[in-house]
Amino acid sequence: MMKEKYYGVIVVGGGHAGVEASLASARMGVPTLIITIDNDSIGWMPCNPAIGGPGKSQVVREIDALGGAMAMTTDETLTQIKMLNTSRGPAVWSLRAQADKWAYSRKMKERLENQPNLHLRQGLVEKLIIENGKVKGVKVADGSIFYADAVVLTTGTYLRGRIYISSWSMEAGRWVKPPSNALSDQLKELGFKMSRFNTGTTPRVDKRSIDLSKFEEERGDFIPLHFSFWNKPKVYENQIPSYLGWTNEKTIEITRKYMHLSPSVAGLMVKTGPRTCPSMEEKVRWFPDKTRHQFFLEPEGFNTNEMYMQGMYMSMPYDMQLEVLRTIPGLENVEIIRPAYVIDYDYIIPTQLNLTYETKLIEGLFIAGQPNGTTGYDEAAGQGLLAGINAALKVQGKEPFILRRNEAYLGVMTDDLLTKELFEPYRITPSHCEYRQILRQDNADLRLTRKGYEIGVVEEWKFRIFEEKEQKLEEVKRILEETTIYPNKENVEKLKELDVKEINQPLTLFDLLKRQDFTKDTLKKLDSRFADIDDEILIEIEIEAKYAGYIQREMNKAKEFLRFESFEIPQDIDYNLVPSLSKEARIRLSEIKPKSIGQAMRITGVRPSDIQMLLMYLKERKGEENV
């Protein structure tokens, strides 16, 4: 074994999962190697150039709170940013940004190159080195061998990937990038249960060939915003717009005419893709009477004429893609720079993972991102971060880092992957989360940064910023709770001037913030002590005040949740010995081996009656009288 070829952690793949996994491991002081097919496409956005959105924004903020790079890099390279769902409650407020995909990739590569303890290597990993059920390293196609105590696979769509444009196809993990066929074959030989999903892209079109005056301009928000907690909010003056358009009857007619040439319709490939991003062919099949489907023209960067057609996924032949697009007003003369295509690929059934993203079958082997059956940059980055953290902790001989459903969207995603059957690529949304009021995007740092600092993944300078914010929150809240407004003539007139309803009893400023007609802006006008307080501090406290009842209700639910999470199930249990379990429950529980009753309750196919039988059995086994 050559010393220069030994690392604590090896990360395979340089996409969003691989970037966060390698950076996390290195920040924790573990010598880390990241091996990727192309060092010039690290952190690449092969689909639309966007970060965030409902559910995803919460994940990105949690990654950031744990020291990750996605949010900060987005702030540095964004072309547009806006806050979504502002007409609804703060539980679903979600940032979404579009980024310059070339600048984003360059900035991520720069971060990796300058991260202490992290080494980059370009190459195609063909084989895992396994000894006695443990991973020992990897073998690269050029014959190089690298050893490590842990390996994190973040191979995206490269596991036996194949792209299609109608009946034409080629093996590739992404356009003209070689797939990881040998690695996929080895995983199957090792005994991993695998399946296959697909995902698609849209045409990239030339902005110069489009009449943008026929589209509805979609601008970003020109107010102080930021994705990363470690950056100050600011107004991004150089944002560029995207454009909203609609299909019509002619678009659908032409799509229907050629849809039989789509590879999934023709039976040439697996049909299972993300329902939230249906292709034009699928839209015609699923909604036969609908002709008006929206799409967006999104710039791919500041210095390019390429535009991404979000919502126009397709896989018919090039000439026919062009014919479909030219039915739309404004696109009569459109030119396609890169045709749309679809790709299918192998993934590992994620119930074969532990909560740390380590596989149950091979010790020291972690898997994150699309190889787990998920889709989306944000989801991949979140899994990569958690896998990288836990790989580093394993190498260091420390306890694992596990986030539960009541602690983070990252915990929700992890638990879903381990307990739910996947019928399509997994994508996180607020509907997956039972505790939306307490797991908001604005308080991710308050929930997670201290945890991250304690395990060594959050850098010192970030933690100092966090401590200052935490102290300021406590100070401002104390002043609000200690300052009482009395219903005297002077105060009544002041409040009336500020359009606040009359008060008839003494109220603290914090109590006033609970009212809908009293906001942070009202507070600043009423009391000059708060005029220079950062809006983010006041927004945090205002949310806490106005939604106190909802937040408390969710916290009570979380306590009940923890009661079942803390009831551990012995890992040596034989479910065949549990009386009266349904056949499906026996199979699913034996496969997944849940760590707790709470996790067992969420497994697809396990019924409440099965849980009762399991509780009774464990009670007898443990000799407990109260469960």
Describe it.
The protein is of the alpha+beta class and 627 residues long. The chain folds into four domains: 223 residues, FAD/NAD(P)-binding domain; 139 residues, Elongation Factor Tu (Ef-tu), domain 3; 85 residues, tRNA uridine 5-carboxymethylaminomethyl modification enzyme MnmG/GidA (Arc Repressor Mutant, subunit A), CATH 1.10.10.1800; 56 residues, GidA associated domain, C-terminal subdomain (DNA polymerase, domain 1, Orthogonal Bundle). The chain is built from 20 helices and 22 strands. The strands form five sheets. Strands 1, 2, 6, 7, 8, 9 and 20 form a seven-stranded mixed beta sheet that branches. Helix 3 packs across helix 4, helix 11 crosses helix 12 and helix 12 crosses helix 16. The longest helix is centred in the C-terminal third of the chain and has 23 residues. The chain is globular, with a radius of gyration of 26 Å.
Report a brief summary of the structure:
This is tRNA uridine 5-carboxymethylaminomethyl modification enzyme MnmG. This protein has 627 residues and is of the alpha+beta class.
Topology (SSEs and partners):
Blueprint: E1 6-12, H1 16-27, E2 32-36, E3 50-52, H2 56-65, H3 70-77, E4 78-84, E5 94-99, H4 101-113, E6 118-122, E7 125-131, E8 134-140, E9 145-153, E10 162-165, E11 168-171, H5 181-189, E12 194-200, E13 204-206, E14 216-218, E15 242-246, H6 249-258, H7 280-286, E16 294-299, E17 306-310, H8 318-325, E18 336-338, E19 342-348, E20 365-367, H9 377-395, H10 409-419, H11 444-455, H12 460-482, E21 484-485, H13 489-497, E22 507-508, H14 509-513, H15 520-526, H16 535-546, H17 548-565, H18 583-592, H19 597-601, H20 608-622
Parallel strand pairs: 1-2, 1-9, 2-6, 9-20
Antiparallel strand pairs: 3-5, 4-5, 7-8, 8-9, 10-11, 10-19, 12-19, 13-17, 13-18, 14-15, 15-16, 16-17, 21-22
Helix pairs in contact: 1-9, 2-9, 2-11, 3-4, 6-8, 11-12, 12-16
